[in-house]
Amino acid sequence: MSSRMYKPTDHVIKKSYLPSIQKYKEMYERSLTESELFWTEVAQEFQWHVAPKPGGFMKYNFDITKGRVFVKFMEEAELNVCYNLLDRNVKNGFGDKIAFFWEGNSPDDYTRITYRKLLDLVCQFANGLLAKGIRKGDRVAVYMPMILEAVICMLACARIGAVHTVVFAGFSSDALAERLSDAKAKLLVTADGAWRGERMYVYKRTCDDAIEKARTFFKHRVDMCMVVNHLDRVTPGGSLKSEIKDLYNWNEETDIWWHEVLEGESNICPPEWVAAEDPLFVLYTSGSTGKPKGVVHTTAGYLMYAAATFRYVFDYHRRDVYWCTADVGWITGHTYVVYAPLANAATSVMFEGTPYFPKVDRYWSIINKYKVTQFYTAPTAIRALMAHYNVEDGNLTMPDLSSLRVLGSVGEPINPAAWLWYYTRIGKERCSIVDTFWQTETGGHVITGLPGATPMKPGAAEKKHPVYYSSMDTFRPKQGWDRTVMIVHLPNKSNRTRGFPFFGVEPKILNEDGVEIEGPGEGYLVFARPWPGMMRTLLEDQDRFERVYFSKFPGYYCTGDGVRRDEDGYLWITGRIDDMLNVSGHLMSTAEVEGVLASDPRVSEAAVVPKPHEVKGEALYCFVVLKEGLQFDADLVKTLTLLVRQKIGAFAAPDTIQNAPGLPKTRSGKIMRRILRKIAVGDHEVGDISTLADPGVVEELFNNRPAEAKPKTG
Ligand code: WTA
C-alpha cells in the first residue's frame, strides 16, 4: 500500500514551466532520444566565443573494459562562465536587477548588489588577481564565510580561467592544509573572521596554521593570502574579548588585504575564453579511504546543466526571489548559490548566519523579509527547527510565508515527519516540495521532483518494510540498507527505470551481479550515460576516478547509493551502500526506522546504526534526540520500541535506544555514522572528529550509553 500522494496545487501549476507529468515525459524522452537538439536549445541562451558545432556533442566512454573513462561535451566550443553570468545578463537588460540580497549574521547587517555592480567588482578583483600573477589554470583556494566576496572571488577566477577550490570554512587547519597541498594552490583567499550566531570564527588564524602545516607536512608553499576585512564592518554577535587584529598573525610578505588588491584596479577586465572542457573548479569530497577526492568540474557542460536544473527544478521566474541556505563551501553552494541562479539572472538571498540567531525564527523571518519564493534547505535544518515548535498544538507563530511556491530538500533523505512538517507548516499545503538527489560528483540535480509535474509522496514510514522484494534473492550487498527516503517517481507503466531523472539522465537499478532490475525492487543506483554537468575526473587521480565510480559495473557510473523502486514506480534513494545494516538476514534501511522514531511527537531527531549481534548478525542501535525540555525515561524507550515493531515489524525492534543530547554532525549537517557506530560498541577509537560541528557531543554520547550497552570490565 502506498502512502498518500500530494498533487501539485494550482498555486504551483499556474506558474510552472512543466505543468503536467505529460509535459515532463515528453521533454525527458526528447532529452534522451534527441540529446543534441535538446542541449543546443539550452546552449542558445548563452554567449559563445566559439559556438558548439553540431555532431558529437557528447563523447564518452563509461566502460573501463574498453579503455579509459572520459566525458567530453561540446568539446570544440569556447566560452567564459563569468561572462555568461554577468556581462550577458547586463547586456540583456538585467544590470539593475538585484543579484543578491545579502543578510548578515546580525539582522542589522544587510546589503544588496545588482548585476552591474557585481560585474564591476568581479572585474576589479580579477584584475587584482592578474596583477598578482594569477593566470589561467592556476589554482586558487577559497576559505570564506558566506559573504559576497566569496562569490566575487569565485567568479573572478572563472573570468581569468583560474581554477577555484573552495574549502568549507568549517574545516580545521589540518584539513585545509591537506587540500591546499593536494590542489597545489598558489593563493588562498579568506576573511579575517565572521560571526555565526554568538560565536566568532577567526578564519585568518586557521589559514595561518594551514599555510604553515602545508609547508611543513606537505612541502607545499602557498605564495599569497588575500584577506577580506570583514569583522570591522559587521555587528558583533557577542562580546569581543580582544582587539580583532590581535586574533591572528599578519605576514607582511605574503598577506594582503582584499581592499588593497582592488586599489587602482579597473572595473573592465576582458574575459579569458576557455575551452568547453577546461576545468572550472575543483571541489573536495570525502572518500571512503579517508583521503579527500578532488572532484573536477569543467566549463560548458557544468554551466548548461546548472542553468537547466535551476530553471526547471525550482521553476524560477523573473520576479522570484530564491534562497538556498547551503554554504558556498559545498557543492550545493557552488551550483545553487552561485552558478545556477546567476546563469538564470535570478535574484537570490545569501545568508551569513545560523537559523537560531538571534531567535529560532530567523529562517522564516528572512523568507518573510525578502518575500522568498523558492526555499532550498537540508532535512537536518528542518528537523532541528521543528524541534522548537510544538507540532501538536497547531499554534505555530510564524511570520507570513505566503510568498513561497517551491520548497527544496537536499543532502540526505527527508523523513516523513520532517516532510509533512515542511509541507504543512512552511508550505501551508500549497507549495511543492522537490526532494533533489544529487552528489558533488553529479554537479547538479540528477533525480528530483519537479514542482508542477510531480505528485509527491512524503516518505516510506507507513509502508511495509521494503526488504520483502523478490530482488533480494539476487541483490546481496554485504550489509543491510542505511536509510530510505522518498525521492521521485514516474508512474512506471513501461517498466523502465525513470524516477524523475532530470533531462539527459538515465538511471538504472542493478543487483549485486550487475543485472538490471526492472519493476519493483532494490539495488545499486547507477547511470547508463553521462549528462553534461557530471564530474570529469578526480584531480590528478584518473585511476581512482575509474576505480571508485566505474569499476564495479563497467559501462555505468555507480553512485554508491542504493535505490528502491516501489509498486507505483517511485524511486526511493535508500542511502549510501556503505551505511547499511542487516538484521537476521533482513536488509534494512536505517532511515525507515529513523522515520518511525521521529514520528513520535517527542522525538526531534533519530539516527540508527548497526551494532554487531551474536545471533542476528547486526542489531539496531538507536540514538534519539528529544525536543527541548522533555524527559528521556524507560517509558519512552518502551513506547518507541513498540512503535518500531508496529510500523515495521518485530525483526526491526531496536536493541538499544539511547538518549542523545545531539548527534555528531559535520558542519554541513551530515550525521557521521562512523562515529555513532563506534559509540554503539563503546569503542573510544573514534578517529578524527575535527570536522564535526560540535566535537564535544561525542564524549557526551559515550557518557550517555545505557548501562547494558557499556562494555563489561574485569
Ligand atoms: C546523499 C550533496 C537522499 C546521497 C548534494 C549522496 C541524498 C550524497 C539526497 C551526496 C537526497 C544527497 N535524498 N540522499 N535528496 N541528496 N543525498 O556529495 O547519499 O555532499 O550520495 O552532495 O548525499 O553528498 P554530497
From TrEMBL:
Annotated keywords: ATP-binding, Ligase, Membrane, Nucleotide-binding, Transmembrane, Transmembrane helix
A GO BP entry: acetyl-CoA biosynthetic process
Residues covered by the AMP-binding enzyme C-terminal domain: 592-670
Superkingdom, natural source: Eukaryota
Keyword Endoplasmic reticulum: no
Pfam families: ACAS_N (PF16177), AMP-binding (PF00501), AMP-binding_C (PF13193)
Segments traversing the membrane: 140-162
PROSITE patterns assigned: AMP_BINDING
Entry EC no(s): 6.2.1.1
Family matches, as PANTHER family: ACETYL-COENZYME A SYNTHETASE
Family note: Belongs to the ATP-dependent AMP-binding enzyme family.
Name of the protein described by the UniProt record: acetate--CoA ligase
Source lineage: Eukaryota, Metazoa, Ecdysozoa, Arthropoda, Hexapoda
Gene: 101746722
